[in-house]
Structures are given as C-alpha cells and as structure tokens.
Write a structure and sequence with these properties.
With 304 residues, the chain is α/β, with parallel strands linked by helices. Helix content is 47%, strand content 12%.
C-alpha cells in the first residue's frame, strides 16, 4: 500500500488546519463504525491538511490496541487518500513500536507518538523511546511533547539529527521560552503543531514561534468557524481573532473548564449539539450535563 514519504507528510501537514475527529461509540460503548465513517465523510469535504485517527480527542487512550487498529483502518478506508491519515502510537516502548508497525500495515500515512502512560522518564530515556519508534517504521513520526514526556530543545535537536523520519513536534506545553529555544535550535527541520487543549486560544502567539498549524478539536462540529479562525491566524488579523475568541472560544472554554476531562467530552457534546451524535464518552471521562449541553448548543448556534 502506498504511503506518503516522511518528507511528503511533513510538507503536507504544514499546509493547513489539522483534524482530530472524535471516535463514535454506541450506547453500550462499543465502536460505532457506521457513525464514524459518516463523520469522516462529512469532515473530509473540508480543506484540512491531515486527519489524526484515535488521537486524544478520539479517546485513543480508552481504546484497546485492536480497537485502535480498527479505527485507523476504518479511517484509511473511508478517507481513501483525500487526506493523510495519522495513527497513534501509545504506551511503553514495545507497545508503541507495535502500534507504529500496525499503523504502517493499516495504510496510515504517519504516526503520532503520544507520551508513555504514567511513566516518568529522564531526557535520555525519552530520546531512546522516540528513536526506537522511529526506527520501527518507514512512516513519518510526529512526537507529542506534553505531560510526562516533555522534551527539551537539546533533546528535540538530537532526535531530529538521529531520526530522518521524525517530521514533527506537537507541543502540548505552551512554554514560550521552550518553544523559542526549540525553534532557534532546530529551525524548519520539523513541522511544529500546536497541541494544547482548544489550541485556537494559543494559535496567534505561537505562530510567531514557528507553530504554523494546530490540532483543532472544534473542527468536529463547527468546521467553517474553525477554518475561518485558522485563516485569520495565518493572516495575523488580530481584530478578527480576538473577536472570534470572545464570541465563541472563550465562552466555550468556560464550559470546558468546569470538570476535568471535559476537553474531550465537550467535543463529543458539540457533535451531538449539531445533530450528528457520536455517542457517549468512555469512563473515566464523563459526559456533559443536560444543562451544559444546552448552553453549548446555544453557543454553537451563534456562530453557525
């Protein structure tokens, strides 16, 4: 099966907004393939640069390895080459290697390497972890720097030197000094992706640090708004960016911040609010209350 080369993937990811679709579940929390396919078909009509299947917004952390493989294969089949599909690699090194290899076998175009679950590690261990995954596949790899796997600028530079197929750094920290140091040291060798929850909030200031694209969760339910916001960021239209922050993004954050885990739950609720239900979230996440869903529905109605 044909894949994008790492260089082709890196170039493609820089060209636009990135989609992180939710994963659809039935009421009994089993995977709803038909609903997921319908959602991907709808999102694929819009101009995005990459689709990240079973990522954080897609509750990849709650899926079994077999389910992740099914979700990735479903995405590859449904999108059918219209948009690059990036699959997750998670957990410890051995598991992440297996998932990276499974992603390649499934026809994905790249891998998003998420932090090892729970394990705290020093920079040398993280470098070896990332390098092992890069060595295990010919796909382009983007590493997600966040939580218990925050990479220093020195580590990112070493990883870029050691691994030709490391194509991207997704930032889930938002540390301005660290991103400045990283970009100064590594430059355009990597594609930089904004990966903070509701990345739109940080998009304009991070643009100055080489972060030219970001993972948009709200694209799941207000795709036109998300794409318009991204265009305003690239144009550095501060007036439009801050107007849209005030009319939608900041009130959305007020709901999101009420309960831990709502950064994912509110996205699924948004899909429900527009009449395209993706089903419930899996525990340990919890769904929005009926009142919160009503507030979100009203908010979405103001920008649709």
């Amino acid at each position: 099966m044909t894949h994008l080369s790492p260089a082709e993937l890196a170039a493609r990811l820089k060209t636009g907004l990135l989609s992180f679709p939710v994963t659809h579940f039935h009421a009994d929390l089993s995977f709803n393939e038909a609903g997921y396919r319908e959602h991907l078909a709808w999102l694929s009509q819009y101009d995005v640069a990459g689709l990240f299947a079973a990522g954080g917004t897609g509750e990849g952390f709650s899926l079994t390895p077999a389910e992740i493989d099914t979700v990735v294969r479903t995405a590859v089949s449904e999108v059918d080459g219209k948009v690059p599909v990036i699959a997750p690699a998670t957990g410890g090194t051995a598991t992440a290697v297996e998932q990276a290899q499974a992603a390649e076998a499934a026809g994905a175009d790249g891998v998003l390497l998420l932090p090892p679950y729970l394990t705290e590690a020093g920079q040398r261990g993280l470098i070896e972890h990332v390098s092992a995954v890069c060595r295990s596949t010919s796909l382009g790899v983007t590493v997600y720097s966040r939580a218990n796997a925050i990479l220093t600028d020195f580590s990112v530079a070493e990883l870029a030197d050691r691994n030709a197929n490391l194509v991207g750094l997704k930032d889930g920290v938002g540390n301005i000094e660290l991103m400045t140091r990283t970009y100064a040291r590594v430059g355009d060798r990597l594609t930089y992706i904004g990966g903070l929850p509701t990345a739109e909030t940080f998009a304009l200031p991070l643009l100055q640090l080489g972060v030219s694209t970001y993972s948009s969760a709200i694209f799941n339910f207000v795709p036109e708004f998300a794409l318009g916001f991204y265009a305003d960021v690239l144009a550095q239209d501060r007036a439009s960016v801050y107007r849209k922050l005030n009319e939608f993004v900041l009130p959305y954050l007020d709901i999101r911040d009420r309960t831990k885990g709502y950064a994912v739950s509110i996205v699924k609720a948004g899909v429900t609010a527009i009449g395209r239900s993706a089903g419930p979230v899996r525990p340990p996440l919890q769904n929005l209350t009926d009142d919160e869903l009503a507030q979100l529905t009203d908010l979405i109605g103001k920008v649709k």
